[in-house]
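Retro notes, structure queue

What went well: the backlog is down to a handful. What didn't: a couple of records were mislabeled last round, so from now on we paste the full input next to the output in the thread. Example, using Glycosyltransferase 61 catalytic domain-containing protein from Chaetoceros tenuissimus:
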Amino acid sequence: MISKIFSSKPALLALNISLFCINVALVTYQQHIYLFASISSSPHQESLQQAVASFSQPQEQQDRRIQVTQELPKALPQKTWCVLDFAFLPKNVRLHFNHFPHALEGVLQCYSHFIETKAIVTATTDVNIGETIIDSNCGFMIDTLVCTPEKMSPYIAQVIDKLGCEVQYYKNVRGGTEKPPIPEGDILYRNNMYKMFPRYSYIKYINAPEHAHYLRRQFVHDSEIRQVKGDDKPLQIGIINRSIERRVVNLEDEIQASIQKQFPTANITYSEFNIPNVQDQIRWFATKDIIVGPHGAAFTNSLWITPGTVVLQMYPTGYYFPSLEPLIEQVDGIALQWFERGIQPEVERNRRVVTKDDNGKFKGMPNQWWVAIHANFTVPADQVTKQLRAIMEPHPHFRTCIGFVDADADLPFAGWGKTVQKKDESKTKK
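Corresponding output:
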């Protein structure tokens, strides 16, 4: 039967064409097999498999991998040393370096310099962490007249450790005649902190807000903060009180209740901030939208806040030390103050007051500063909520001026006239 079918010339021609096509198909198939085998055995197999797998992943994960696999920057090969010596530091820093708020004034300026000169470099290696420090080649050379290893604040020690900086001490003589032992080839940096004066007006802690955020992520990642605040989460309000002197007497009950009434859905946390762990202190500040309390060392942790956080500090009459407001503003926070209405706090600070001993006899006439620094005080709750409402819910009768919100100000701002005009029109119609 088959011989009859292919006996004709057209049939033989068709058969030859079919055999040719089958042969071509077999060769092509073998070439594909060889190509696949060569790819599978090549040194690029892992990269190819990752590239193929990435097609099925969300864009965010693809971006994250690109950031991780790119070549990361390196710090300068020469080590940069920040010298903290007795002769070049302001009195409050060189005599109180063991108290971390004062020590930070010197350490943060050096840190900003390290960032700007590439002695410390940053990058984003994980989107859940955010941009943070990845490499450093820096050190602190500390005069023993300023601080010794035994007196170094644990808080400052942990901050310097997170910077990745080396710490060395050298023995100096009063007056700064001894040169710091900087190794040959290394770079010396001595920050002129006297440029901060007058220190009550403005203290330069850090050169750019992002420098603080890079450092914060060494302790607390962005993902940890996003779990607590932001998006559709309730407002997070932190209230801090001092455990001894300069306590706000009515803070825990009256003021907290007034704030809760003003922001009924907010989550309010009260603390006297006896938190021994540095990382827990940082997390407490980083996860708040509003922080309220009497001025004190705890507010140095404002370094760790996220942009837009409102920090309101309260001052008793006579004790006015606005040293941390610049820090709050330099990290992109909003600094507010409360002090007694109708006074000039700078004047009251230097006013002489008569003091008596326990028997009622004349003791002396010190500045009111030294009396108020130990005094507990009361703050009108409505004045606190007015300031918070003014900054959180802008109202035409409130204005903000240089870190202080005046709740009774009647000066107009853009749009204020239109609001008044509408009210006048409604009165006219009646």
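Agreed that this is the format going forward. Reviewer comment attached to the example: The chain has 16 helices and 15 strands.
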